[in-house]
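Notes continue from the previous slide.

Worked example: a multi-chain complex. Inputs as given:
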Amino acid sequence: MKFRHFSRVVIPAVACCLIIAQPVFSQVAPDDPLPSWNDSATKTAIMDFVRKTTEEGGPQFVPADDRIATFDNDGTLWSEQPYYFQLAFALDRVKSLAPSHPEWKTKQPFQAVLENDMPTLMAAGERGLVELVMASHAGMTTTEFEVIVKDWITTAKHPKLQRPFTDLVFQPMLELLTFLRANGYKTYIVSGGGIEFMRPWVETVYGIPPEQVVGSSIQLKYEVRDGQPVLVRLPAIDFIDDKVGKPVGIQKFLGRRPIMAFGNSDGDFEMLEWTTAGDGPRFGLIVHHTDAAREWAYDRKSAMGRLDKALDAAPMRGWVVVGMKEDWKVIYPFETTSTK
Amino acid sequence: MKFRHFSRVVIPAVACCLIIAQPVFSQVAPDDPLPSWNDSATKTAIMDFVRKTTEEGGPQFVPADDRIATFDNDGTLWSEQPYYFQLAFALDRVKSLAPSHPEWKTKQPFQAVLENDMPTLMAAGERGLVELVMASHAGMTTTEFEVIVKDWITTAKHPKLQRPFTDLVFQPMLELLTFLRANGYKTYIVSGGGIEFMRPWVETVYGIPPEQVVGSSIQLKYEVRDGQPVLVRLPAIDFIDDKVGKPVGIQKFLGRRPIMAFGNSDGDFEMLEWTTAGDGPRFGLIVHHTDAAREWAYDRKSAMGRLDKALDAAPMRGWVVVGMKEDWKVIYPFETTSTK
């Protein structure tokens, strides 16, 4: 995780989309599994890959067991601006724990959180972030943490858009997940985000059950308290599921190589490399944030995220690059429902 | 893992079972999903639990997503005598690597392996065992290791019974796995054994895919060699999936608590405790090795294994204890096919 620009101006995406959503949906063929995707080469590439890998007796047929598709989460399935949504969770959690920690008023990086002093918070860097994560994500049981996350995800609002964070998932990717599953693909999240931060809500939002989530984790300790066993979340890193950690996490959890992988940053480079280097049909896709009007626009060495090495590698390796502006009719689900 | 008595006499189980298998199978009702189980209270308990948890609208109904059943492997799904079968793999592997390691001729514990000197090997204890595991399980890529395991599992023979190790799976447990899956249960292995030692063959043998295997692991490192990405197995422990590690492994991999758990030793105590302490219907079962004639008989503080604390806890906690002698008509699948 790393901090992003907090100062940028958010374009009023909602109003914009209300205008374009109506004509978009009236043009869609009723049997189109990807109605929010423009009829571009990208959509054709996805449809062709699924068709050929599921065509029994065909030369590129893949048995259902091997139809594994892995998706990064932040920036691939939902937005990640102005900062990772899990950081918003950490900030909110520090604020709600503050009454029990009077020392935080004068201790960084906590003081910066409590004073909404983003420049100081950014200056605390990765070490400061780890301190925040441990203070906000550890010390409770797994059951307690699940309740905390569920409560937050249903009540918290995006700092700019003032909508629940789960409103900010990408409608075209929801359709893609559904389409792949309808074709016998097993869909997994493989994210640098916290595994137990995602599990409580991804089944409802993405249709992905907790056992199909791979992510970063802190250590757990088994204890019996008053006769009841619990798993306590310890303030110590267990696994970082990012960059080279992604193929490692995939092997640890799945024990087989995916045939499709979807990401949006250099943190996904190795997952795409590992996935597409296997034998037989392979598919790699990068979501390129090109839509400053409806979402955000960033790549390369932007402070908002980094898509540099992977963007350069894409043409050579045959990875499909989705331009959000060019390829997606709508970004968020509320754009489709708000016109009905 | 720990060493067991190597000196015991193996009763000729095969001949014995050839005699009893014929009448057993002619008595079975055609629609009985557990034909190798005697009609005992144990079988009734299993059938009742599955019936009530799958009865839609019933008070004990469990949605399909939560029907998770976890199985220990060694001693629960297949035999584990005269020593864990993975140790047999390690010993065979050390022998096949020996030509490249002339120093092993005079270096323990390798010398003991090469000279079949079991007492010295046992005396090397856990430290010696870890040395053997690292020498035999690390240093290659995950793809290479998979080939090594597949080759071994299809060619190696049990040291006493002279059969492939996969012949020594328990027929009643195979039926139970199939029965549970037919009722919407997702079956997982949660074993102290090596996760990548099991994955190459458990799908064929148990019908359990690689992504439903939780086990002990060594660390992996992502590398690109001559343009090809590989995952290298490092000689360093990553996770021990035994005792308190079992609930931790379950949470890491599944993110939810099973409602059924099956084990055979004190190494499974915490998995059973964690599983059966949850709300709603819960089921814990211990396979008790009581059949010296057809398999092996051991429990308590035996050098062959330890089932002590869990056996004492079973009545208080409502865990079902399966006596292999009393509850199982046949032990191994070949007992049923050899009479056909």
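Summary box: Chain A is about 40% helix and 15% strand. Strands of chain A lie at 68-71, 186-194, 213-225, 228-239, 260-263, 283-290, 297-298, 320-323.
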